[in-house]
Amino acid sequence: MSLKRIKTNFIFAVKQTNQTIFVMMKSDVIIIGGGIVGLATAYTLLQNNPLLHLTLLEKETHEAVHQTGNNSGVIHSGIYYKPGSLKALNCMEGYHMLINFCKQEGIPFDLCGKIIVATKPAEIPALETLYQRGIQNGLSGMKYLNADEIKIYEPNCIGIKGIFVPQTGIVDYKLVSLKLKEKILAFVNAKIEFNAKVVKISQDETSAIIQTANNNQYVGNLIVNCAGLYCDKIAELAGEKLNLKIIPFRGEYFSLKHEKAGLVKNLIYPVPDANFPFLGVHFTRRITGEIEAGPNAVFAFKREGYKKTDFNWSEFWESIFWRGFRKVALKYYKTGLGEYYRSFSKRAFTKALQGLVPMVQEDDLEPAGAGVRAQACDKDGGLIDDFYIQESEMFVHVLNAPSPAATSSLSIGKHIASIIQDKLKK
């Protein structure tokens, strides 16, 4: 029996007969997930400790494939979030960190501002609550708008009262993620492994051993789970007991045809339903100049189900049989039916948009992309609204990081890095 040992950077390959077993050198930290939160966490950790041995594992062929790569590119201001919540704190800090990063790295962005519009009297109290939240979260320069002033910002928009939020902006988060990847790989002991789907996690007294679908093994002192739509699955592989499950919600978009893009100048949002953790269909100017309309929010039959026809029996039944999801479905069934109706009826989708911009017609819309939101749902039927992180001795699990996670990513990374730094000192 012949053995051949090859060393390439972190990788040791042992060839025995016709089978090759790859065993990775031990890392100080392994991060699972190559979305913007995982990348920002890796980047922040390496900034704090440039000699750290860090490995990032991503199951896809490149970074930012799922939630990061399919969002609308909005730089959120923080107006929506409960003062003192992790969302509010990280959004406010992350906003400034993101802007500074984009300036330093030459990434295009535009702080164009947005308007939030009440179209009926019943929405005004919620609009005023948002304004007060904005003040409590440190926003400045916001303005109340009457019906005529709304048209100064968006000539084709109608409403009885609105708020102008100057801090809101737009950026391409795939470009941000690409730059983060480049910065990570510039560190001498950092490595990113693509095509590295985690299928098994075991532990000994001092480290965790991660096995991927291609039979590679990675050993780390500390593991950070930023796996997004599969973060609960990774946590369960690590032996965590969870009181929640990720329920996937698909958001579907249309875009305005090029010749109709002038109907919207920047960003127009409705007053959101305070009881439903989604912002409602709205208009967003992309950094490319396209005008995106949407999204709706429908239960997806697959965690990475970007099309209406995407279906995974195992994931579907797992969601359906989760007690918490059944309670959510019962609680929000009227809202959910309306979302599904818009999903299958372009006319209904158009009607929702016409509540903000009446001049938009069905023929003005063409199908655009879709994203899937990883929404954590607890056993009691609560859709967890805030960011949620669970720790154990060797692990940090990011178990709920919906919007504004992209805006907040560098701040979330900073928070996780501080947790890891404390663990490394022990």
Topology (elements, then pairings):
Blueprint: E1 3-8, E2 11-16, E3 19-32, H1 36-48, E4 54-57, E5 74-75, H2 86-105, E6 109-110, E7 114-118, H3 124-136, E8 143-146, H4 147-153, E9 161-165, E10 169-171, H5 173-185, E11 190-193, E12 198-203, E13 208-212, E14 216-225, H6 231-237, E15 244-256, E16 267-270, E17 282-285, E18 291-294, E19 298-299, H7 313-320, H8 323-331, H9 333-344, H10 346-354, E20 365-378, E21 388-391, E22 395-400, H11 405-425
Parallel strand pairs: 3-4, 3-14, 4-11, 7-16, 14-22
Antiparallel strand pairs: 1-2, 2-3, 5-10, 6-10, 7-9, 8-9, 12-13, 13-14, 15-18, 15-19, 15-20, 16-17, 17-18, 21-22
Helix pairs in contact: 1-5, 1-11, 2-11, 9-10
Describe this structure in words.
The chain is of the alpha+beta class and 426 residues long. It has a domain of 172 residues: FAD/NAD(P)-binding domain, CATH 3.50.50.60. Helix content is 31%, strand content 30%. It has eleven helices and 22 strands. The strands form three sheets. Strands 1, 2, 3, 4, 11, 12, 13, 14, 21 and 22 form a ten-stranded mixed sheet that branches. Strands 7, 8, 9, 15, 16, 17, 18, 19 and 20 form a nine-stranded mixed sheet that branches. A three-stranded antiparallel sheet has the order 5-10-6.
